[in-house]
Each structure stands twice: as C-alpha cells, then as structure tokens.
Amino acid sequence: MTNSSPATIEDVARIAEVSIATVSRAIHTPEKVANSTRLKVNQAIAITGYTTNAMARSLRLGRSNMILVVAPDIGDPNFSSILVGLENEARSHGYGVLIGHTQNEPQRGLEYLKFLNSNQAAGMILFTGILPFGHQSMTARLPPSVGVFEPVFNGGIPYVGVDDVAGARKAIDLLIAEGHRRIAFIGDSRTRLAFSRRREGYEEGLAAAGIPQSARIILEGDGTIESGRLALEQLFMRDTLPTAFMCVNDQTAIGVMLGLTARGYDIPRDFSVTGFDDVPQATFINPTLTTLRQPRTAIGRQAMALLLQLLANEHPDETEFLLMPDLIVRNSVSRPRSGK
C-alpha cells in the first residue's frame, strides 16, 4: 500500500483474504469472529492504516469515534485490567480508546478536558475520582462521561465500580468469625470516596458484632505502601494494639506486613492482615495476602457500555452500578493468639 490514497475496507478484505462483511464484523463485533480470522483482519488493518484513516474521516465530519480515558497513574495494577474491559467493549461498537495520563497533576486533567471540548473525543472515562479544577466553566459542554475505580467526588457523573461497603463487610466478617475483636482500619480518607466507603463497611461490621465505638481503631492513609508502614508505627506508640489489620487496599496491607516483619512479628500467628483489590503482589508476598478481588475487566466493560448508552442519548435511571468483589482467603489471617 502507498500513502497516495486512503485505505478502504476493500483493501483490508483483500489483504486478509476475507469478505468485506467479515472485516466489518471483526471491527464492530469481534466476539462473533474466530480468533484466527480476527488476527488476519487486525494485521491487514495495521498494514493498510485503515483504522487511522477512518478516525481521520470522523474528525473531518465534526464527530469522533474515540473515547478519552483519563487516569492519574497508569502504573496502578488495577488500571490495566479495567482498561482491557473498556477497550474490548469500545472496539466491539466501533470506538477506539485514547489514554490521558494526568500523573496526579490537576493542570494536566484540565488540559484533557479542553481536548474533549474540541470534539477530538466523543466521551470520557474518568479514573481520577475528581473532575479537573476549573471544569465548572465547561460543564455545559462536557461530553458524556462515566467514572470508574473511584466515585467522582465533585462531578455528579455516573459511576461503575466495586461495592466497597459490601466488600469491606466481607473482610471484617471474616476477621470477626476468626475471633478478632480489636481490629484496626488503615487507610481512612476524607477525599477518596472509595476509601471512606470501605471504612463504612468496617464500621457496619463491627457494629453488627456488638463491638463498641470506643474499641475501634482508625488511621488515615493515602493507599501507598509507605502509608501502611507509617500507620503501623503510629499504632505501636499506643498502649493497646489490635490483633488484626483491615487495610483499605493491598498496597497499604503490604506496607503493614513489611513493617510487622521488620519488627520480628509473624503473620498471621501474631497479627492478621487483610487487603482490598487483589493486585498481583498479593500472591507474591509472604505470607500471601487475604484480600477482596475487584472484577476489574467486568467493571471496564460495564463502564464503557454505560458511556455508549449516554452517547446514544439513552439515560439509565440509576447513577451508580456496583459489582460485588470476591473474598480471596489466603495465608495472612488466622485466629488471634490466646491471651491477645
């Protein structure tokens, strides 16, 4: 192929040695096409540049078939699995995905918002949990948007994610069933709604077990390994230690476990620890971490399906769609030692 004329669907079909109808199905409904055929079509698209030309035509018509995904940290282990679900659902309906990486810088988020309002993207999937500062002046022109992973704190846009409260209840109920009564919650946050909802599940579980407010131990954290270590050091300055740690996410739990191990404690003989998310490191740390597994790919698929509904001017009655996490029991939880 030369660059003198735009590639056509006929070019893709000829190189892939399939019919035009098969190319169309491979692009718009790939789940209905055999893997070997889909691979041939994708290779032909790459050779001809057909996808790129199709995107260019949509931009010339004043509309876009691209979805902007705005994320604060593309290195987050949760991001890639959710992205798989987002992209697969988008591709099956003829849309592509662009990734906007804010690196936790508010100004970058505002730049991506301006990008959206120039009609270079049809809609937005937002991982950040907060609309960029300065968005208010653009609200009337904000394209259809859906939040994932973190409920949007100041935006009022639909959200698809995990049921944080129910997930936290599963973890706290497990610890209580094992006999723990002094359980610390590590990772409370006033700005991250997912974290505050997990604290809510912690509080509900303790209340249901008849554990008084005075016995609850709650420390703040930002979800990093270091915040888990710091919270642990703060607890060791207290007179009464917990027998178990319910951590807001796996990174925090890993920080707590590393801190306990450095002090010479055995997990779970001396302390039990739970996390939330089930990131890959949860199976590598010793002992392996008991945690809640987010259905990340399913979250991505449902979030994109909801966004496509909004793009079609279909407005669902609900504004939140919560999927249930699975409790993954590993080796970091046991009954408390007698006398503790």
From TrEMBL:
Q: Does the keyword Transcription apply?
A: yes
Protein's organism: Rhizobium alvei
Span of domain HTH lacI-type: 7-61
Q: Which GO terms describe its molecular function?
A: DNA binding
Keyword entries, A-Z: DNA-binding, Repressor, Transcription, Transcription regulation
UniProt xrefs under PROSITE patterns: HTH_LACI_1 (PS00356), HTH_LACI_2 (PS50932)
Extract the CDD domains matched here.
HTH_LacI
State the protein's name: LacI family DNA-binding transcriptional regulator
Q: Which PANTHER family match?
A: HTH-TYPE TRANSCRIPTIONAL REPRESSOR CYTR, LACI-RELATED TRANSCRIPTIONAL REPRESSOR
Q: Does the keyword DNA damage apply?
A: no
| Pfam families with a match to the protein in the record | LacI (PF00356), Peripla_BP_3 (PF13377)
Name the InterPro entries for this protein.
HTH_LacI (IPR000843), LacI/GalR-like_sensor (IPR046335), Lambda_DNA-bd_dom_sf (IPR010982), Peripla_BP_I (IPR028082)
Its lineage opens with: Bacteria, Pseudomonadati, Pseudomonadota, Alphaproteobacteria, Hyphomicrobiales
